[in-house]
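Below is the data:
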Amino acid sequence: QVQLVESGGGLVQPGGSLRLSCAASGGIFGIFLMAWYRQAPGKERELVASITTSGITNYAGSVKGRFTISRDNTKNILYLQMNSLKSEDTAKYYCKRGASYWGQGTQVTVSS
């Protein structure tokens, strides 16, 4: 049974940083494309960043240069380092494995 458990969200001031983690179990982590998505209230879920099995990354334009996605295939963990956070980054952040599996999400709130 596949499980994805996000952690690391919270309340942070504008300009601050957070690191999200997504611990995966079930299946072989290293063979799947992994991604972070986010959904703000009243908005559609959007792709934030993705990383292939070989480490090739892709970012939404709104986070490029501020966020970094990475993965540790030995520990089955996906990360999202978020720097220079803005109020518009406030959302629930989800990790996704391949095309099918989602975590339950972790809330990120950027506010002074």
The mean pLDDT is 96. The longest strand covers residues 18-25. Residues 69 and 80 are 5 Å apart (CA to CA).
